[in-house]
Specification:
single chain; about 325 residues; alpha+beta; Uridine Diphospho-n-acetylenolpyruvylglucosamine Reductase, domain 2; Uridine Diphospho-n-acetylenolpyruvylglucosamine Reductase, domain 1; five-stranded antiparallel β-sheet; four-stranded mixed β-sheet; 7 helices; globular; binds flavin-adenine dinucleotide; binds NADP nicotinamide-adenine-dinucleotide phosphate
């Protein structure tokens, strides 16, 4: 197994942060990953997919494993469903497009999310009212210390809002090698109530949704609103939407009657972090090359040569300001190294 040394990570992370990794190993099979394990002992290790949910604030002193396991296969078919197993190194959006083309439903609202399939369970990726946990079946993962392949079903992943067991108790312990989804092959349950999907379908003259039409609508909305990392460095939403109690909300409404909030069950509400940041006056803020996107305050951006520490410092200034103005703690969604 060849390990490249002193590799620039600039093209491996969508923020475009120019740091170096001491070692980089490109892995294309489980066998190759297993072969690498002895070299990882006592060495710091980081698994990298598309680098679209990471902020590097310094050089990485250990070995980065670039996961490129490929392959998509239907492993089981029933009357209404298919079980589709996908290699962790497949591009997420390409995988969603393959499912849509094959008339397999469930992931169409998650079109155009950057990154790889292997990272999708890490934070239970979600958009437009759908999360992968809604049609996730199971995953296989290589335990980096023992070399054992373990299977995790939906419950074992402990999915939550932008959370899973792999971001918490099992952080850094497993390399996810494949993910299986249970997708509908007929009688699709379309989810078009969220945001502007229905409006976009109407604009396109579509009265009966199809998987393709919903996917196209999501793609059109995303393209119109979100910054393309190929044009301006970013990692999507930098912060999670905070979930607070009804009692806390009452206090905020007294000062900010227009605060955007959604029911989150259990007598709790979800605030839109982007709204809080915009209201606090950060939208469009720029210091040198680190900034808050001009159209979407939840997205921090690198205008070219910002360092990871500069982006981090900006995020901390925002966290402090939101705590002071609204009394709400903002939690970072992006993984920080
Ligand atoms: P990386 O950034 O490479 O890694 C993320 C984390 O997962 C790291 O901790 C890494 O170590 C770990 N990891 C990666 N692969 C594996 C593996 N195989 N095994 C074990 N650990 C692994 N996210 C959403 O949820 N919804 C959205 O709508 C959304 N929109 C976005 C829009 C833009 C413009 C951008 C830039 C990002 C967006 N994101 C969104 C965030 C991001 O795309 C997702 O979280 C995506 O799943 C990250 O995939 P990745 O392969 O790039 O992961
Ligand atoms: P948006 O539609 O303008 O909505 C703003 C915020 O309000 C979102 O954070 C969303 O929460 C919440 N929201 C809107 N309608 C809702 C509803 N009907 N019920 C509950 N919550 C609602 O957001 P956007 O920035 O254009 O993004 C659209 C979708 O893509 C969102 O689901 C967002 O999460 C996802 N996205 C995620 C990332 C990322 O990096 N994680 C980046 C870009 C877009 P939720 O975020 O909980 O949905």
């Amino acid at each position: 197994m060849e390990i490249q040394h002193a590799v620039s990570l600039k093209s491996y992370n969508t923020f475009g942060i120019d740091v170096k990794a001491e070692g980089l190993a490109v892995i294309t099979s489980v066998a190759a990953a297993t072969e690498l394990l002895p070299q990882l002992r006592n060495t710091q290790t980081l698994i990298l997919g598309g680098g679209s949910n990471l902020l590097f604030t310094k050089d990485f002193p250990g070995i980065i494993i670039l996961n490129q396991f490929k392959g998509i296969e239907v492993t089981e078919e029933t009357e209404n469903h298919c079980l589709v197993k996908c290699g962790a190194g497949e591009n997420w959006h390409s995988f969603v497009m393959t499912c849509v083309e094959r008339n397999l439903g469930g992931l169409e609202n998650l079109s155009l999310i950057p990154g790889n399939v292997g990272a999708s369970p890490m934070q239970n990726i979600g958009a437009y009212g759908v999360e992968i946990k809604d049609c996730f079946h199971s995953l296989e993962a290589l335990h980096l210390e023992t070399g054992r392949i373990d299977m995790f079903d939906n419950a074992a992943c402990k999915f939550g809002y932008r959370e899973s067991i792999f971001k918490n108790e099992l952080k850094g312990l497993y390399l996810i090698t494949s993910v299986a989804f249970k997708l509908s092959s007929r009688n699709h349950a379309y989810n078009i109530k969220y945001g502007a999907i229905a409006e976009e379908l109407a604009k396109q003259g579509i009265t009966e949704p199809t998987l393709r039409a919903v996917s196209n609508a999501v793609i059109a909305i995303r393209k119109s609103k979100l910054p393309d990392p190929a044009v301006i460095g970013n990692a999507g939403s930098f912060f999670k939407n905070p979930v607070i109690t009804q009692a806390q909300l009452v206090g905020i409404i007294e000062k900010y009657p227009d605060v955007v909030n959604y029911p989150a069950g259990d007598n709790k509400v979800k605030l839109a972090a982007g709204w809080l940041i915009e209201k606090a006056g950060w939208k469009g803020f720029r210091k040198d090359d680190a900034g808050v996107h001009v159209n979407q305050a939840l997205v921090l951006v690198n205008y070219g040569n910002a360092s990871g520490s500069e982006i981090w410092a900006l995020s901390q200034a925002i966290v402090d300001d939101i705590a002071e103005k609204f009394g709400v703690p903002l939690e970072r969604e992006v993984n920080i190294w």
